[in-house]
Write the structure tokens for this entry.
Amino acid sequence: QTCSIASDVPCPSQEQDRSVNNQCSLHPYKVSFHQLGWDHWIIAPRLYTPNYCKGICTGVLPYGLNSPNHAIIQSLVNELVNRSVPQLSCVPYKFLPMSILLIEANGSILYKEYEGMIAQSCTCR
Amino acid sequence: KVEWPSTTLLAENPTLPSSLDLAKEAPGKEMKQWPQGYPLRYMLKLYQRSADPHGHPRENRTIGAKMVRLIKPSASAMRLLRGPWHIQTLDFPLASNEVAYQLIRATVVYRHQLHLVHYHLSCHVEPWVPKCRTKHFPSKSGSAKPSSVSKAWREMNITHCIQQKLWNRKGRRVLRLRFMCQQQKGNETLELRWHGMTSLDVAFLLLYFNDTDESAQAKLLARGQEELTDRESPFLMRSVR
């Protein structure tokens, strides 16, 4: 908004516009407990969809990324002031729980709801 | 940069990071026998009622607990009484209390009918602890909740028994029950070989847990902070006034 008014604020380049598709976002990903080597003690479910976050966190950060003020400022410092200050990382923001049925070491069978198992949204931080 | 680890590498070396909450329940590489029979079927049905095929907890789940543990008896001893009665003593070891969870319900599920070749037995369980209040399901008052136990099995609520007599004890805790069976007909007394009977899974214990007040508050606080961040509009993102 300000780049068209203030001459010292650079406007997003065409290159940045093209990189919108690579912006930090949630990617679905499914894995089996067999692939993780855990199928000898996890009874259900067979498949696990943890998802992951991937993408760039530079330029103008979209509002929906829920980045705190500090993250936005750090991104600006990296771009405008000092490149040694790290860029932001695309990481999970909200999570969903997951119910698992498993066998314990003593042979008991356990049903348990685990928090923080599935990434639901991403943020730049 | 986010790099997804190679899945083949993990399968070859299935060690678990100690910080993973899920890892605390993981048994060693030398796994005991995979559970079978009715206990496994019971827990699978409980899982299907409570979560969808992807593992997402169902919104309309009626389990009423965040964690349910099925414990099978660790030891049993058989005693043949006079006449048609047979008694099996069942010991259920109770693990030490987990700080983040509180026991809300305890039930024992047992076979009340045993059909052997030429013989039929009628069975029930009794807590070893005197003056222990128990309650059978479905209750005689006619609970609207459908029973999740098959016809050959019965469920008995022993929550009061465990909470009052056993749960707050220090040291090793064992719930002892008597599994008593009576021959239904025939004068000939059957000498049962209980060593083979234990494989029939005659009874198991179910412990239901929920978050303690402290851990529930901590989770609510964490979620509240997330919601506060959602509602808070960073000043750099506010629309120009």
